[in-house]
Fold this protein.
Amino acid sequence: NWKMFGGLNSLNSLNKVLKFFKTFKKNKFTKIVYCPPNTLIQAMSKKLANSQIKVGAQNCHAADNYGAFTGSVNSFMLKNVGAQYVIIGHSENREIGETDKIINLKIKSALKCGLKIIFCIGETLQERKKKITKKVLNKQISLGLSKIKDNKNVLIAYEPIWSIGTGKIPSSQELTKTTSFIKKTLKNIFRSKSPPVLYGGSVDGNSVKLFKKIREIDGFLVGGASKSSKKFIDIIRNYYR
Ligand code: 13P
């Protein structure tokens, strides 16, 4: 997740990643998705067309059709320029007014057009201190995924808000507990296997060494470190080391 960073020249940072990935022994088991700003989706998709690396967007409008929504882009438009994934419900958007209800509509629309969704959930520091993390996550999951039956294009990203961009990470014990709870909740909702659960929040080459030991974590949503080819490659290398 590049967030609101990068211009056309930032695409050069993919060269090293592409080169590394081509000869990387575990590349068949590794799925990489870059989510750049909308302005770079098309150019990035073209650049990555002959690779295993996919492209996603960072948000979408909830409407299925075109409409008078100045400044917005819907999931169909994102797919049209090469996105195969879309992040929905990121805390940075929840913070500026995105509600569980809107998130649910966005998820429905994105799934309908065939995008895979990366649905973000997570508690604030205050909620963690009040020990209501489970309650908060349960609400975000059940409202966000309300009336969604098919989980095959769904990925969940657990991102504790206090861990985003701060270098602070949950203890292994805490993370094991929380991710197990998330998977249990998802299993109940879908009445089948839980979709993959990613962890996000200060993931880098170092912290990944701890995270990889947690069985419930199926992957990562990387912010800051995804913009540097070196840092990003470090994460992949250290995960398998
Ligand atoms: P950082 O990896 O920079 O903490 O960001 C996490 C994030 O918000 C990814 O969506």
Observations:
- The beta strands are 33-34, 54-57, 85-88, 116-121, 154-158, 197-200, 219-221.
